[in-house]
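#structure-requests
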Amino acid sequence: MKASHLHLAYGTKIIYDDCDFILENHDKVGIVGVNGAGKTTLFRIILGEQQLDSGKIDLPNHRLGYLPQEITTPPAHDAMTVWEYVAAGRPVDDLQEQLNLEYEKLAKYPDSQAILGRINDLQDSIDSYDMANFDYELLRILEKMQLADLMDHKMSDLSGGQKSKVAFARVLFENASLLLLDEPTNHLDVETRNFVANFLRNYQGTVLVISHDVDFLNQVTNKTLFINKTTHKMKVYRGNYNDFRRQYAEEKAAEDARITEQEREIKRLSEFVARARAAKRSNTALIGMGHQREKVLAKKLEELGTREQEYARVAMNITPAKASGKTPLEVQNLSFGYPNEPLLHERLSFSLTRGEKFLIVGENGAGKSTLLKLIVGELQPQSGSVILSQNTTIAYYAQELEILDERRTILENINSYDFSDTELRSMLSNFLFYDDDVYKKVEVLSPGEKARVALCKILLQRANLVILDEPTNHFDPETQKIIGENLKDYTGTIIMVSHNPAFVEQVGITRMLIVPSRQTLDSSKQNSQLAVIKNYSRELLEYYYYLNSDLV
């Protein structure tokens, strides 16, 4: 892939200014830069959805596979099973039908070179899909993505998180020569994430990844394409994300030192020119030198470098309005399962002490998000109960950001009788929404912007029990750090689902609830079938995350 002289601007806002880069076949490339630098825009250009003002990107004979950050499946696919939907990623039947039509044309026009050329191209496309291993590869991907149990389910029956995983499985199965992945780890548990990382490292094609998951980038990438929002330039660095950060820090330090030296020289010249201008007319020597220095000064000002801009960061305050009781939450003998499905939770019991930071872990599909919805009352248990103390107030951050009304504006979404519009706008500015931004409808926002609105909304509630479902999805590493620091100091109680080990460690978890998979439940002979609560320790958490041990 080769990009030459890319120029793009929206009105007076410059995105790319004469950018060039070259990527080799089989490169695994992390696309990085601050929010608004143009990462997703680059994908849209490659996909043909965005036109450049000038310049071009050469993609010789690339078949593209694309995983967007927000997954939407067309209504026409709702009736398809998971197997049928993923299998359609290799459209062999359609290609075979086209090939048969070309052979019919060839019978009428046997000397047509154009028809023969199309036949060769179609046959090459069919061969590239490795038909001999079609079913084997499809089943392997479904199993490793932990979707095998869903392969006969209709797409319309899946949750948003399940659809995201199925869409990802389809992209991996497509066998495209160029993969574009936008935040691919948002809905993946650790085991699935490790499979995907290994799959991509060994992928026989080029992979471009936009991700805020630093560990994932370090595992997968061998190059980093940095889009600089200050200079509007792009540069390719060899190595993974950590290698990029080291090289970039060294370059930035050298550039800052160079600019500092330039500024000293400019100040010295400016002072000399000012003295020369103030000199008496009779001091012709000083005036003459002043004119010479003035020319040098003008050149130095043209050559002066631009320092990296420090962008505003999210600011948070999550102090509860009041304290909860000593035991803010009790779950007693709770059982739940979806219609026509095995039970997800059976006779589950635990209680929380005020101030605890409680982590729920388990594989995708084990029922973590379902348990949170049972606690907040969005779902009703088949038996058992969820008991909140009299003073417990809940704020719930949902993984799919369901707490937002996409048809309303940002300001309308956080509207509260407890705060004036001025106070609300001040709070929104802490989440980087300024001036007329607050009147944007949520439906036009990026996933990261939506996540900031949702976080702002739950913090305004000043609840004493905060329930967080994958709170770091869509946030850059710096914002993740800010959220983690605030949650660590939070005096209320936290229940959290997260697949981000570094973030979990930062928050300071005190206990874990390990929800086993259905397969584990079916084979278990223990009476404590559905939950094991362990005292938290770093060693246990690392053991769970990195060795994927069956802890039940």
